Amino acid sequence: MPAIEILGLEKTYLVGFWRKRPKRALQPLHLSVEEGEIFGFLGPNGAGKTTTLKMLMGLVFPTAGTARILGHDWTDPEVKAQIGFLPEQPYFYDYLTAHELLDYYGQLSGVPAKDRTRRVEEVLQRVGLTDIKGVQLRKFSKGMLQRAGIAQAILHSPKLVFFDEPMSGLDPLGRREVRDLMEQLKQEGKTVFFSTHILSDAEALCDRVAIIYKGELRGVGAVEDLTSSVQGKVEVIWQGTQIPASMRALGAECHVTGDTVRAVLPENQQDAAIDALRRERIRLIAITPLRTSLEAYFVEKLQHSQIPAGKTVGTAV
Amino acid sequence: MSSRIVHIARNTFREAVRDRVLYNLIAFALLLSGAAILVGQISIDIERLVVINLGLTAVSLFGVVIAIFIGIGLVSKEIEKRTLYTVLSRPVRRWEFIVGKFFGLAGTLVVNTVFMAIGVFGALLYVAHKFTKPDGLILVALYFIILEFLIICSLALLFSSFSSPLLSAVFAFSLFVIGSFSDDLRGFAAMAHGMTRWVATGAAYLVPNFSALNVISAVAHQQPMGSQLILQNTLYALFYTAMALSGAVLIFERRNLK
After folding, report:
1. A311 CA to chain B: closest CA distance, Å?
2. Mean pLDDT in residue range B158-174
3. Comparing C-alpha atoms, which of A44, A60, A53 is closest to residue A4?
4. From B250's CA, which of B147, B155, B163, B221 has a CA 20 to 30 Å away?
5. Whether residues A262 and A220 fall in one domain
6. Residue A169 sits in which domain range?
């Protein structure tokens, strides 16, 4: 059973003061996310990621379409007891302490009173806020607020967690910790759906990604599949600054960097290149096939002309 | 009542306390102490009348200001600051949120009124040196003031569910002023003719009838209150509050939180 099934959700806003005109924020979106996977929802700012998440959370009503979450109708309020949500740039009741905030959210999520204090302490420790649990949130930095936001999203041990730009406002160490946390959630069998425009995070974390641009889904697939397409070239790196003439004859593009040379050449010339280096008694450091990066795939999809809605989705998953 | 409503109400009360809303009690205490001392020195035989009038009017005005200025931000502030997102993404229905907010603010005002009432009775004891049986009517006036607060809270919430805080404040305050003169409006409607009569009558019944809830002067003059008036005012206030809250819920249920 998919954790999330988005069935043609779309959103059109009416903008303007006097003469309202329609502005489509999201074209009919079809998407399926399997249980237990980390799914990245990628797109530049303004692509429609947050609108999609807000619709799934019931904060914004779709113009058309429907969705199912954990096998239930998405409008069923009880489904929400099984999901966690971190909004983009979260802001909380700043007159509360971190402990009070989580206790309040625990109450709203239906966490039994006897378990609540223990759960709150656990998640505070998990996000590294134990030492400042008694400090009012108005004194929190942006990064600390983000941690509090993550804590409230996982407090009630949800089966499915939605993160909207979870790395926003975090320093490199904080980003690393969030990545680790998302991997832990996956190991615990939870499904993670997160939106980001930071591709390195998605590449490092996600099982599958979807790319959205200007409200339109441009592609869906497993990160491994998207990035494993070999370009038919290999990268050869060797010690020294010497570039043998035979290597150039093979069609290699060579660049000297410090005391190593990096050469890119056709895959079918790989053995000949190794022979050439042996003949010259040059120390080979590495040979790796060149793979398409997620970034290259992302850029290609953004530049790609319009894909008929629905076609990509059903087949590409 | 749903436990979620209780949690939301409790949090709303906690917010008001931590935002130092109850500090208004200090201003109220200073006003009433000063007035009691002054009245004790310059009035002869009407100290009781002046203290009750001034005290209850101050209770009403302080509460109305709090009800309007907190009430107008109850929903709009949560949307603006996006604190609502992490509440409504939980198993909380939108109507529960509105009702919880209402009870939280109403609870704040009741607590505030209780402290002010202690101040009024204290000032009365200071100037009159003893309580008399008709002083019990002050409790009826305070009860009506609380009913007035319930209506204003629900109206402020209604406006807050679709409008900006500034406009909500203007709407709520205007309704409070017009409602305070609703007896005059009904009198005008009775005298008018044709279309004007219909419009004036409609407006008179639409705006909250705060005139009926204002018995401060009658209490100060020790006029008796019938139990029928108490029942009528209670039913009227509860009905009006329920209608305004239902309106707030209906609007909020359809609102996109962009």
Report:
1. 29
2. 91
3. A53
4. B147
5. no
6. 2-227+294-316
Q: Flag if B92 and A108 touch (Cβ within 8 Å).
A: yes
As for how many domains chain A has, the answer is: 2
HEC sequence for chain A: CEEEEEEEEEEEEEECCCCCEEEEEEEEEEEEEECCCEEEEECCCCCCHHHHHHHHCCCCCCCEEEEEECCEECCCHHHHHHEEEECCCCCCCCCCEHHHHHHHHHHHHCCCHHHHHHHHHHHHHHCCCHHHCCCEHHHCCHHHHHHHHHHHHHCCCCCEEEEECCCCCCCHHHHHHHHHHHHHHHHCCCEEEEEECCHHHHHHHCCEEEEEECCEEEEEEEHHHHHCCEEEEEEEEEECCCCCHHHHHCCCEEEEECCEEEEEEEHHHHHHHHHHHHHCCCCEEEEEEEECCHHHHHHHHHHCCCCCCCHHHHHHC
Q: Mutate which of A55, A93, A145 to test chain B, going by most B C-beta atoms within 10 A?
A: A93
Residues of B in contact with A61 (CB under 8 A): 254, 256
Chain centroid offset of residue B59 CA:
10
User: Which of B7, B15, B84 is the closest to A95 by Cβ?
Assistant: B15
Residues 6+ apart with CB under 8 A from B19: A95
How far B73 CA lies from chain A's nearest CA (Å)?
14
Q: Is residue A286 domain-shared with residue A299, that is, in the same domain?
A: no
Among A50-54, A196-200, B143-147, which stretch is predicted with the lowest mean pLDDT? A196-200
Separation of alpha carbons B47 and B40, rounded Å: 6
Q: How confident is the model at residue A148 (pLDDT cuts 50, 70, 90)?
A: very high
* Same domain assignment for residues A116 and A149: yes
Local confidence band at A228 (pLDDT 50, 70, 90 cut-offs): low
- Those residues of chain A whose CB sits closer than 8 Å to some CB in chain B are 13, 54, 57-61, 77-81, 83, 85, 87, 89-93, 95-96, 104-105, 107-110, 149, 152, 162
Mark whether A106 and A191 lie in a shared domain: yes
Helix or strand run (H / E) with residue B60: helix B47-71
CB proximity B258 to A under 8 Å: yes
Tokens of B20: 């130092």
Given CB atoms, is B239 within the 8 Å cutoff of chain A? no
Residues A222 and A81 in one domain: yes
The reported pTM is 0.84
A74 with A126, same domain: the answer is yes
Residue labelled with tokens 């939980």: B90
Q: Domain with A256 in it: what CATH number?
A: 3.30.70
Q: Strands of B99-258 (E only): list them.
A: none
Q: Helix (H, G, I), strand (E, B), or coil: what is residue B81?
A: coil
Number of other CB atoms surrounding residue B223 within 10 Å: 11
pLDDT value at residue B107: 95
